[in-house]
Amino acid sequence: MSISRKRVDAAAVSASLLLCLAPGAAPTSAAPGDPGNPRFAEGEPGVGDPYFPLAGNGGIDVQRYDLQIDYEPPAEGAELVGQIDGRAAITLVPTKDLASFHLDFRDLEVESVTVNGKRARYTHENTELEISPRPKLREGRSTEVVIEYVGATTRPEDVEGALYGWVTTADGAMVVSEPDGSPTWYPVNDHPTDKASYTFEVTVPEGLVAVANGELVGESTSEGRTTWSWDAPDPMASYLVTSTIGNFELSTTSAGDGTPIIDAVDKDLDPSASQSLALVPEMMAFFSERYGDYPFTTYGGIVDDDSVGYALETQTRSFYSEVAREGTVAHELGHQWMGNHVSPQEWDDIWLNESWATYSTWQWDEKQGRASAQESYEKVLAIPEGDPFWDVVIADPGATNLFAGAVYDRGAATLHALRNEIGDEAFFALAQTWVERYGGGTASTADFIALAEEVSGQDLETLFNVWISTPARPNV
Ligand SMILES: [Zn+2]
How far is the CA of 431 from the centre of ligand 1 (A)? Predict the structure, then answer.
């Protein structure tokens, strides 16, 4: 939903170029509908993220996804293949006049595409679904695209070989898509720079529970199938969208500020696996003091009895594999401000997510009387010079190194070094201003450095250069 600062700047530049050229240029005579009319562009197949060039798409700004998913999990004892019958209604606004545009979609089979109620031509190759609507689309006019699709679900892997996307399980599916796994289950403008709101209607065999982001708005059963309806109005990056299905027990409580908390815990797990979720209201109050009010309408956790090998801060409903440990619960809650409300402008800005989330755990540990943040920082600095840990340039770790340990721990140590440099008052003013200024959208490493300098009044170039851009242990 938000338009990135970079895109705004690019648009401003091209607009001023046009203005410069206009006085001497011949007026364009092509009329709308003219086949040679260059005014109707082809939307780009990617937004140009250096790590994932085909992620996201040019020329469109999605406002809302209404997803209807009918899912059949694997039969008992059968191989882990499910069946999706899906319908995605996508409300978008063209950011220029378009003859065609792309969405990211893979693995499943498109059955039909309509644009504003009219059948549209399309091609679907690899990750790109290209749609050519007639009439062509006008810039700024709200457009509804409906895509119906079917197919078998498997267990997809990301560029590092980790399970992600729609991961089929024995009792349903684990849906966790960072960084580019959402196209495994719905057609999407798959980049954090195009946040949108979502609704979900997920139909599963009676007895199973489908857990998505946001608020539970209804549940109805007929002929042995239950439809779970969820509403997630807060702008959300696509990698944070979930629709996890399993043998869950739902429970609802509320945080001190009234935020409803809906947890989904697999009934097959020992109660100890989810006991740290009870700390969430206290953690939320603590982080709210430091980062500003909790930014979304709901929260909660999903603890599944299967594993993708990691936890994910799926927006408003963090996902945990098999167990929700206290430090991880603090980490994923910290992400709701840092990563979810303020999201990375490009994937090379990932350290902004993971540094703050890791630093959230450091602060929580300190509050609970365990290691102080200073002690956690010193532990990182105790990693000897020459250790490969220090080789990672965390401001540009590479697409296959997004989740390297250094992105987390060196990132958190960077924040602590910054706090030591500018003092607590400026540091927490920075955290809150960061969330206020960029919440609901995205921001870059350059934005963060600029804001840290603005808030502190200090020149921080050397500090950041040493900590995030140099493949060596900082000499402190
Ligand atoms: Zn994280």
Answer: 17
